[in-house]
């Protein structure tokens, strides 16, 4: 029964990621409710969603580019290093400490998602990043992505558009770099005792199917309403985590 629920959570997350993002808002609580610790849930969710991220990155590879004078290989190297550092930081964080951090991380991810969904265009128009600023921003985002990951898509979209990339190129580059960041973390997580393979495989299968269904439904779903729903999920999850710590 629990595996079925986890599979359905993966299906929902894959669909949600394909349409608007924020799938970890679904997978994290589903895995925690199934009995995993917050640390194990985060590690298992990261590994499970990784194949779908690689698929998304490959699908838009023709639009992937560097950020101005910062070439893509530079962004790639920064993302690998930052993702690995974030993953190492997570593996060396005691589960009890991570449990106390989770409400704050979800709050930050929800805020990043809401800002990226509804306020980013106005905000980025006033800010421009050079190659050093773009490199530093990507490094910090990659560390956060390897450690937790919620909202990294919108943080990268903001940074890349501030660095001068058109929206289409920023989106494709963001998808590719998200896969790179998580690849570095996943390489560390696959040998972690906190990775629950049965749950990861069920979640991954659901996410792959959900991502495919999402690509089919992309033209039929009201994206703004979906983003509002995701922000509401994030707010409810944040409030629940603060009121009833894990």
Written account of the structure:
This protein is an all-alpha fold and 246 residues long. The protein is globular and about 50 Å long. Helix 5 (95-118) crosses helix 8. It has one domain (2-243). The chain has helices spanning 2-19, 24-33, 38-59, 72-91, 95-118, 120-124, 131-147, 152-162, 167-189, 197-217, 223-243.
Blueprint of the fold:
Layout: H1 2-19, H2 24-33, H3 38-59, H4 72-91, H5 95-118, H6 120-124, H7 131-147, H8 152-162, H9 167-189, H10 197-217, H11 223-243
Strand content bin: under 5%
Largest sheet: none
Number of domains: 1
Q: Rough shape?
A: globular
Distance from N terminus to C terminus (CA atoms, Å) equals: 22 Å
Query: Share of helix among residues?
Result: over 70%
The helix/strand class is mainly alpha
Count of separate DSSP helical elements: 11
Order of helices and strands: HHHHHHHHHHH
Q: If you average the pLDDT, what whole number results?
A: 82
Low-confidence stretches: none
Number of strands: 0
Radius of gyration: 17 Å
């Amino acid at each position: 029964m629990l595996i079925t629920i986890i599979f359905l959570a993966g299906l929902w997350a894959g669909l949600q990621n394909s349409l608007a993002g924020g799938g970890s808002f679904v997978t994290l609580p589903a895995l925690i409710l199934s009995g995993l610790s917050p640390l194990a849930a985060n590690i298992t969710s990261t590994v499970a969603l990784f194949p779908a991220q690689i698929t998304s990155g490959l699908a838009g590879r023709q639009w992937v580019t560097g950020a101005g004078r910062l070439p893509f290989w530079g962004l790639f190297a920064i993302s690998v290093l930052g993702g690995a550092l974030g993953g190492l930081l997570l593996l060396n964080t005691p589960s009890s400490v991570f449990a106390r951090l989770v409400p704050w991380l979800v709050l930050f991810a929800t805020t990043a998602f809401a800002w990226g969904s509804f306020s980013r265009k106005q905000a980025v128009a006033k800010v421009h990043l050079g190659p050093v600023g773009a490199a530093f921003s990507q490094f910090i985002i990659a560390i956060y992505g390897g450690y937790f990951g919620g909202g990294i898509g919108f943080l990268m979209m903001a940074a890349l558009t501030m660095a001068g990339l058109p929206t289409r190129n920023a989106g494709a580059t963001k998808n590719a770099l998200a896969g790179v960041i998580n690849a570095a973390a996943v390489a560390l997580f696959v040998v972690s005792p906190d990775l629950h393979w049965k749950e990861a495989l069920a979640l991954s299968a659901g996410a792959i199917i959900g991502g495919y269904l999402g690509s089919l439904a992309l033209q039929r779903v009201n994206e703004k309403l979906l983003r509002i729903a995701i922000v509401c999920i994030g707010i409810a999850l944040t409030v629940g985590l603060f009121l009833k710590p894990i």
